[in-house]
Design a protein that fits this description.
Radius of gyration: 25 Å
Structural class: mainly beta
Helix content: under 10%
Strand order of the largest sheet: 1-2-3-4-5-6
Number of strands: 13
Strand content: 35-45%
Largest sheet: 6 strands, antiparallel
Number of helices: 0
Order of helices and strands: EEEEEEEEEEEEE
Shape: elongated
Length: 174
């Protein structure tokens, strides 16, 4: 559009005795957008484009359900990612606050198609925090594969394999 779009919205109140709904709907030749607020047991807010739901904010469990990809601070999706975000220079892309001490918090958890936890990135929340890389041991149990401690020591749960050269570079601090 080269000029501002002017349209007259319709305000509709509809629904059954059980789920009354307030809907603001804009329909023109160029757009069909609606915002619905449902009361009753769920109390959801639903954003739609035409008849397609884009976002549902659930009143029953406070969940936000996006129908499609989520893009933050970008104009397009990164590859085939479901979540694409862009941090400005010098800014954190994601921040996580662990609200407990002397315990572990999973920062990232990966599940297989059956919903089984197969890989996680975990932090120990104490005065000397550790970063733990955990994997499924093949029996459905998540076990620690690598620990990076607060002294920058790396402890592997088992052997370390190195590519074809078999070379290891560094300083022996033993």
């Amino acid at each position: 559009l080269t000029s501002p779009l002017t349209c007259n919205p319709d305000i509709l109140l509809w629904g059954s005795v059980f789920i009354p709904t307030l809907e603001l709907k804009v329909v023109t030749p160029d757009c069909d957008i609606s915002i619905k607020v449902q009361s009753g047991a769920s109390g959801s807010v639903i954003l739609q484009n035409g008849n397609n739901t884009v976002l549902t904010l659930s009143g029953s469990n406070q969940a936000a359900k996006f129908e499609g990809d989520v893009i933050i601070n970008r104009s397009s999706v990164l590859g085939t990612a479901k979540l694409s975000l862009q941090a400005d220079a010098g800014e954190d892309a994601i921040g996580v606050q662990c609200n407990s001490n002397n315990t572990t918090t999973k920062l990232l958890n990966v599940f297989n198609s059956s919903g089984v936890d197969i890989v996680s990135l975990t932090v120990n929340n104490d005065s000397t925090p550790d970063l733990l890389f955990n994997t499924d041991d093949g029996s459905g149990t998540i076990t620690e594969a690598l620990k990076l401690d607060s002294s920058q020591n790396a402890t592997f749960a088992n052997g370390v394999s190195i590519g074809d050269s078999g070379s290891v570079y560094g300083t022996d601090n033993a």
